[in-house]
Design brief:
This protein is of the alpha+beta class. It is 40% helix and 17% strand. Strands 2, 3, 4, 5, 6, 9, 15 and 16 form an eight-stranded antiparallel beta sheet that branches. Strands 19-20-21 form a three-stranded mixed beta sheet. Strands 1-13 form a two-stranded antiparallel sheet. A hairpin with a 2-residue loop joins β10 (223-224) and β11 (227-228). The two termini are 50 Å apart.
Length: 615
């Protein structure tokens, strides 16, 4: 998609041209497959997404400035202005390919860090940046590139409504939003592994079967907006961020565009792509300069741009991609479920572990689709996303605890697969030792959960999240892999007083009442909870008043007056603040007006409250 100037697929003329191009791509693909034109060598490649943060460890909106300073075609934009992506060179699988990839990755990330520093920014590798909040999901943070805006508009129009995000883990998050920028919360290390086109069904289904156990040890994204959710929250978050379905029961699209799939692959790669075209409507088009069948007749290898454009809007966790390398067509799996970070060594270890298992498939598990129920593979994947290494998996007819499966089955399998592909033993041992240590100690998700819980004992959640982000950066700079990280100390970042805003310190767990509630009930609520301020809402949940203990105590011994509705005794001349108000400004406002609390509002909606006790 990044190569094309895309536009929305609408109108009969555009649709007719696009469909003609798409059908031609599929026919050309089938001809190339039937005549044995596909490359049989196995290459690897990768895409590294990363976050940019400012001096307060919050998302920066300067990605375009940093990209300009980097001035390297390997780097490109992402949907959010606090993310960038770098593409690594493909390498032939074997010998020292993984250490070579690691060396190039470190060189490119060093270039990113150097140029980010020119703008007083830092680079963070993590699946979900802990300090992202709802402010960073506004369209002002969307990269001003047409393809992102077109995709956003198209998906929202297909849904017919704004996006609803609901994820429940240890905590719960429920957000209503008007763009697909939730996608920008996710950063991943996307590993690419070339397949033998003639072994497509076995290889792709094997990738699906092993996805859950591999994900469990890679997980590092349990926190979103301060809530502890899934061990790899990206899986739930990305699924909902670009969902075109208004309801599972409306007959527009039954399946989510981001997903694991609903059955094993069958047939050829052409059949796989045909199923995708049937199941998901095309959203975008472009001005295609050539026709694939004509190119094929001329002896050229077509790029199948219409098919790739369609495929670019269907986000399978194991996505099948077509490409051309050195004049030969190939297909590869793009592994999209592995998160970014927390170090480049961890990422290369994750890639090697996955690639080793892919190549080390034992004979008795060939044709896995005939021996394993697809729903067990899918269940394994979502269990891994929810519970990480605490999950249990159905494997080879047994229910096996995660760590036992990884140590006793998958690690030996990975070694066999790597040696089969002539990967240097010293490289295999170096990177797979990282995986083994992580299995025996902790993965990134567990480190983050334990660190945040520790920090929240002494810090407000927003400060804890910034300290957590600073700790990720500090550890990554030292080069230690995640299994060796100590928990965040708490001293990695100390916020300056003049930077503290109410958004970071206001209470959001508030007892409220409605204007027609009885004063008696609200009085009892205040006594039971020992609270001195209750915001009052109307039937639309707009803030319309405030009841304070000073107002209520006069009615405490007057039963008749207490029967009145709250609206008859509440204060309506409210002095309020916004989440961007600083603590210093809030203190001055309360002192000058001789009040003890400030409701914090967004428009007419209450988002928090700050009191003199909080200050």
């Amino acid at each position: 998609m990044g190569e094309l100037k895309v536009e929305r697929l609408s109108g009969s003329i555009l649709r007719e041209r696009y469909i003609s191009q798409l059908l031609g791509d599929l026919e050309a693909l089938e001809q190339m497959l039937n005549t044995g034109m596909f490359d049989t060598n196995i290459h690897i490649g990768a895409e590294q997404e990363f976050c940019l943060v400012d001096e307060q460890w919050e998302p920066s909106n300067k990605a375009l400035e940093v990209l300009k300073a980097i001035n390297d075609p390997s780097f490109t934009t992402e949907i959010a202005l606090y993310n960038l992506e770098v593409n690594l060179n493909p390498l032939l699988l074997g010998e020292d390919c993984f250490s070579k990839m690691h060396e190039q990755l470190d060189q490119l990330m060093s270039k990113a860090k150097t140029n980010a520093a020119k703008h007083n920014l830092k680079v963070i590798l993590t699946g979900i940046l802990p300090t992202i909040d709802s402010r960073h999901l506004l369209t002002s943070y969307m990269t001003p590139v047409k393809r992102y805006q077109v995709l956003d508009e198209t998906i929202r129009d297909l849904r017919g409504d704004d996006l609803e995000l609901h994820i429940k883990g240890v905590d719960e998050i429920n957000l209503h939003h008007d763009s697909i920028l939730f996608e920008g919360c996710n950063t991943s290390f996307q590993a690419h592994l070339q397949l033998d086109a003639n072994d497509f069904v076995d290889s792709y289904n094997w990738a699906q079967a092993i996805a859950g156990p591999v994900l469990s040890i890679c997980a590092n994204s349990p926190i979103l907006m301060g809530r502890e959710l899934w061990q790899e929250t990206r899986i739930a978050l990305f699924t909902q961020s670009v969902d075109t379905r208004a309801s599972n029961f409306l007959l527009n699209e039954r399946d989510a565009r981001v997903g694991f799939g609903n059955d094993w692959a069958r047939g050829t790669i052409v059949d796989f792509y045909k199923d995708s075209v049937v199941n998901f409507r095309s959203l975008l088009t472009a001005d295609f300069q050539t026709e694939s069948l004509s190119e094929l007749e001329k002896g050229n290898i077509p790029k199948l741009k219409a098919l790739q454009l369609h495929n670019g809007t269907v986000y399978k966790w194991n996505r099948l991609c077509y490409g051309v390398t050195e004049g030969k067509p190939h297909v590869r799996i793009e592994n999209r479920y592995m998160p970014s970070g927390p170090t480049t060594t961890d990422e290369i270890a994750n890639f090697m572990f996955w690639a080793g298992i892919m190549q080390g498939r034992p004979k008795h598990l060939d044709s896995i689709h005939e021996k394993m129920d697809f729903k067990d593979a899918k269940g394994n994947f979502y269990n891994a996303a929810r519970y990480g290494t605490a999950a249990q998996f159905y494997w080879d007819g047994e229910l096996i605890p995660c760590k036992e499966l990884l140590l006793d089955h998958f690690l030996p399998m990975a070694y066999r697969g790597l040696y089969r592909m002539n990967v240097l033993p010293k490289d295999a041992e170096k990177y797979l030792a990282v995986i083994e240590n992580r299995i025996k100690n902790k993965n990134g998700a567990r480190w983050m959960v334990q660190s945040l819980r520790k920090l929240k004992k002494e810090h407000k959640t927003p400060d804890a999240l910034r300290i957590l982000t600073a700790s990720i950066y500090e550890h990554e700079q030292k080069g230690y892999t995640i299994d060796a990280w100590q928990l965040a100390r708490g001293s990695e970042y100390i916020p300056e007083e003049n930077q503290k805003q109410l958004r970071h310190y206001m209470n959001t767990k508030i007892v409220t009442a409605q204007e027609n509630d009885s004063a008696d009930l609200v009085l009892r609520m205040m006594e039971w909870r020992n609270i001195h301020h209750v915001p009052i809402m109307d039937i639309h949940f707009n803030l319309v008043g405030l009841l304070t203990w000073t107002d209520v105590k006069n009615y405490k011994d007057n039963p008749k007056e207490r029967k009145k509705p709250v609206k008859s005794i509440m204060r309506t001349d409210l002095i309020t603040a916004t989440s961007a108000t600083t603590l210093h400004e809030a203190k001055d406002t309360m002192r000058q007006n001789k009040i003890n609390c400030l409701p914090v509002i967004k428009g007419k909606k209450l988002v928090g409250i700050i009191t003199t006790n909080d200050l």
